[in-house]
Specification:
Blueprint: H1 3-6, H2 24-27, H3 34-40, E1 53-59, H4 65-76, E2 82-87, E3 105-110, H5 115-119, H6 124-136, E4 141-145, H7 166-181, E5 187-191, E6 218-224, H8 231-242, E7 248-254, H9 263-275, E8 280-288, H10 304-315
Parallel strand pairs: 1-2, 1-8, 2-3, 3-4, 4-5, 5-6, 6-7, 7-8
Amino acid sequence: MENEQHDGLARRRVLSLLTLTVPAVALSGAVSGGAEAAAARGGAVPFRKGKALLGSYLSLRGRTLTESLALRRRQLGREQRIVHRYYPWSGYAPLAEPEVPASAVLMVSWDGTTHKRITSGRSDKNIALMANRLAGMKRPIMLRWAWEMNGNWFAWDGAHNGKKPAGYIRSWRRIHRIFRDEGAANVAWVWAPNWNSGPDVSWNRFENYYPGDDYVDWVGVSGYNFSKESPRTLFSPIVSAYGKRKPIVLAETAAIGHGRGTKAPWIRKLSAYVKETPSVGAVVWFDTDRQKGTSRNFRPDSDAEALAAYRRMARSARFSG
């Protein structure tokens, strides 16, 4: 999502894992096919065939994260399996996330910077600090670094870096190497473009930014129904391109209403789409009523019908990861 949408939100905010204190969700993938088979897809956060993790970014007006988690627990009768947080590029590298339950995977969307600041080596100490802090949390973490790189609204996108996606790839690989050298084996790497490119030109196609299979554990995608797009329209291009090689996480998604009674049908379409798309292993709802500068409300409980549809989705077997 664009900077203006995150402004004010973001700042308020496998085998090696067996030696760590890891919540059950990280190890449950080893039940079928052995630990090595489970770790082969998804890295430190294993992909489980037929089971999608369901979680959210939670920022509800007047509530702390702990209070927001409790509200959703009461409404849905279940816990969040992913809790999504936003970290700035520098100046904030937490030692722990005490409000995030031990049973949940922490998904961190970590800001980037210009490609040159990374590829030159000037940011190596900052990268190593974050690697050490995340490793020290001793929990499975999905790291979504520099998302929506095929847009034109972030400092790390191609439009702000000379229209040269290769710089993004070199940056990603350098960060990946530093995390490996610092022993951050609990981090699963999530590469996550926007569902469509802006500008929509050949050099800015999402595939031009892909760091390579050896550097990516999950492929993510951001997509909202701002213009009444269906889940299939939003997510099928990414699924078609990578779903046979990598598990897919719908890393940022939600529905806004387009008139009375329109949010629930979209949620039902999302549920159906995930059920018929086996490569989708996680869905992360952007659950907030705080989008700056607009009247958009992403909450799944904005009306009773929407909440009922979301509850049915959350309680279905497909979303029991």
